[in-house]
Design a protein that fits this description.
6-stranded parallel sheet, 3-stranded antiparallel sheet, 11 helices, globular, alpha/beta, 279 residues, binds pantoate
Length: 279
């Protein structure tokens, strides 16, 4: 596995692979890698000739400076995990390398950024659009792999790919969970013992909610999910939403067409966790 820190060096390598007709797969990450990321890397390697993984904590997508400061950074450990997972090129650029000047681009994701994460974290998806488009320009992948835990992010990135006319395939990959049911996230490393012990209550509630769905109205079920999660003294919901899986339109009635996904953001102490379940 090659470890690269500059765009120019990476561009040369990618040029050679492209000339040789190789399919480039890409997994963008913010590091602090866990089994969820590694499953993306394995999927990427299985479906491409060359697997490129970026490790870059993108400052423009953090709307809370404290959150950016405490985001876990473990580059050496990340590199040690990437090679056995099948990564061919690990790209670990500096902030200056990605943003030699301030990125002032403003994306318009319309409705997609008006709800859930978009509503609660103003500017977050603009920052995601900025960094992912820059990384796509540098890596020039044929396929890019994203985890479904960040369900809304996948919709935003698909939209950005259309807006900017990228010719690449976005491949959403399933959520990976601990045995306890807790969705894997780099933020889990920041949970203290009590919050870690209680965080699996989030997914346990979503699973129960899926079973209760036929018996309750959408509104009542959202209220039930909120109350059930908040009944745990270590957890506090920020939002509970049930949306269409492709349009992200908020569902008000089970009879509406399409696959429904229940999405939640929950504070476990100071740490904000998100999760979702397909109904
Ligand atoms: O999902 C993430 O980890 C980040 O939002 C991404 C896609 C790597 C962009 O910084």
């Amino acid at each position: 596995m090659k470890i690269i820190h500059t765009k120019d060096e990476l561009a040369c390598l990618i040029d050679d692979y492209k000339k040789a007709g190789k399919v480039i797969g890409f997994v963008p990450t913010m590091g602090a890698l866990h089994e969820g990321h590694l499953s993306l890397v394995r999927q990427c390697k299985k479906n491409s000739d060359v697997a490129v993984v970026s490790v870059f904590v993108n400052p423009t997508q953090f709307n809370d400076p404290e959150d950016l400061k405490r985001y876990p950074r473990t580059p050496e450990k990340d590199c040690a995990l990437l090679e056995p997972a099948g990564c061919d090129i690990a790209f670990l650029p500096s902030v200056k390398e990605i943003y030699p000047e301030e990125d002032t681009r403003k994306f318009d994701f319309g409705y997609l950024e008006s709800i859930m994460e978009g509503a609660k974290r103003p500017g977050h998806f603009n920052g995601v659009g900025q960094v992912v488009s820059r990384l796509f320009d540098i890596v020039r992948p044929d396929k890019a792999f994203f985890g479904m835990k960040d369900f809304q992010q996948v919709a935003i990135i698909k939209n950005m790919v259309k807006q900017l006319n990228y010719s690449l395939e976005i491949i959403p990959c399933p959520i990976v969970r601990e045995e306890s049911g807790l969705a894997l996230s780099s933020r889990n490393a920041l949970l203290d013992e009590n919050h870690k012990k209680n965080a699996p209550h989030i997914y346990a509630t979503l699973k129960k909610a899926r079973n209760l769905a036929p018996e309750m109205s959408v509104g009542d079920l959202k209220k039930w999910i909120t109350e059930e999660i908040d009944s745990n003294p270590f957890l506090k919901t920020e939002y509970v939403e049930i949306v269409d899986d492709t349009t992200l339109k908020v569902i008000n009635d089970w009879n509406e067409e399409g696959t429904k996904v229940a999405c939640v953001a929950v504070y476990a102490g100071k740490i904000r966790l998100i999760d979702n379940i397909v109904f």
